Amino acid sequence: MSNVNVRENAKKPKKIGVLTSGGDAPGMNAAIRAVVRSAIFHDLKVIGIKRGYDGLLSGDIEEMNAHSVSDTIQRGGTILLTARCPEMMTEEGQEKAASICKILSLDALVVIGGDGSFHGALELSRRGVNAICIPGTIDLDLACTEYTIGFDTAINTAMDAINKIRDTSSSHERCSVVEVMGRHAGFIALWSGLTGGAEEVLVPESEGKTKEEVIEQIIENRAKGKKHNLIVVAEGVGGSASLAKQIEQLTGIETRATILGHLQRGGSPSAVDRMHASIMGYTAVQCILNGETNRVMIYKDGKHASMDLEQALAIEKSYNGEMYNIIKILAI
Ligand code: ADP
Ligand code: F6P
Asked: Which of 24, 217, 260, 266 is 20 to 30 Å from 156 by CA-CA measure?
């Protein structure tokens, strides 16, 4: 752990809030459960806040007990509901949200979400709220941690869909273009491309191949005897329908595009997601009990830990081309 912020003369915490914000992710419920149960175990009161920052601003809250989270560890989505909240992007909204946390006497606010939600939490921390963050996003796009809750379930869903598309595409000797989620990040595309045996993966972080180069490659592959070509496109690159049309026109190979969309965000969380969610939820409460402030739960080098929120958000995301190179070598 680096730079642990501990409240001077910290009084024993009594009450915390928990919310989920931004895109939902499988495993968010397991994280809420872990926060609620760990807190109650240590005699903390827990306020569940509905619809992320929206519910904080409108006071849509309820006290939670150990039974509030019964039968939820296996459920996708979030029992607290989630939302994107434009008001929280404004200074007035942030001031109001911070003063509501004070009125509610929250000793900490646990925010389960992605990069945007963490920026909201950072604004609250600058206004005196103890913001404790748990990474929950299928995108894996937080540079501070090697794991974000929901990613494993999402890539398994994407891989399973790719397997099914491959069956029918191979039978028809077609080319398939599969668009996966990730508006700003290509992790889902790279992982599902590698595990689904893709010939090409297009991601937003790298210019990569042009559409013309992809088409040339498909023609070469056909000449080498490949019966089926799979092109995985990240949502942030987009244009999968028009790419499919172009491929068909220029190669003469029948091509179909499939946009997997929100089915990647649903479903019962995998064991990996439940494990990380449970440990991160538990660790978040430990941080609060230790008097630590403004922390992000992280998974790094095989260990769970926490780090300072501001420092966590300052880490630059870097694109690792290694996985792309492996995909290309394995696709010969
Ligand atoms: P995610 O948390 O999954 O990345 P979003 O980027 O949509 O999802 O962010 C979720 C919410 O977090 C936004 O709707 C907004 O309320 C809040 N948020 C995002 N960015 C900021 C910011 N820079 N400052 C304050 N709040 C933010
Ligand atoms: O939560 C992340 C994410 O699923 C991105 O991969 C995707 O671009 C975005 O959310 C979709 O958001 P919405 O549900 O608002 O369409």
From this structure: 217
Question: Does residue 138 line the site of ligand 2, with CB under 6 A?
Answer: yes
What is the residue type of 187? F
Taking the CA of 158 as reference, the closest ligand is 2
pLDDT of residue 227: 82
Is 205 found in the same domain as 134? Answer: no
The band of 9, judged by pLDDT with boundaries at 50, 70 and 90, is low
Instruction: Find the 264 Cα to ligand 2 centroid distance in Å.
Output: 10
- For residues 77 and 100, membership in a common domain is answered with yes
Catalytic residue among 54, 115, 139, 141: 139
Q: Is 139 a catalytic residue?
A: yes
Residues 127 and 228 in one domain: no
Residue 42: CATH number of its domain: 3.40.50.450
Cα of 89 from ligand 1 centre, angstroms: 7
Q: Are 247 and 139 in the same domain?
A: no
Atom nearest to 184 CA in ligand 2: 8
- Determine the distance separating the centroid of ligand 1 and the alpha carbon of 287, expressed in angstroms: 23
**Could you tell me the pLDDT band of residue 222, with boundaries at 50, 70 and 90?**
confident
Number of domains in the chain: 2
Contacts of 70 (CB under 8 A, 6+ apart): none
The 3-class secondary structure across 117-177, one letter per residue, is HHHHHHHHHCCCCCEEEEEECCCCCCCCCCCCECHHHHHHHHHHHHHHHHHHHHHCCCEEE
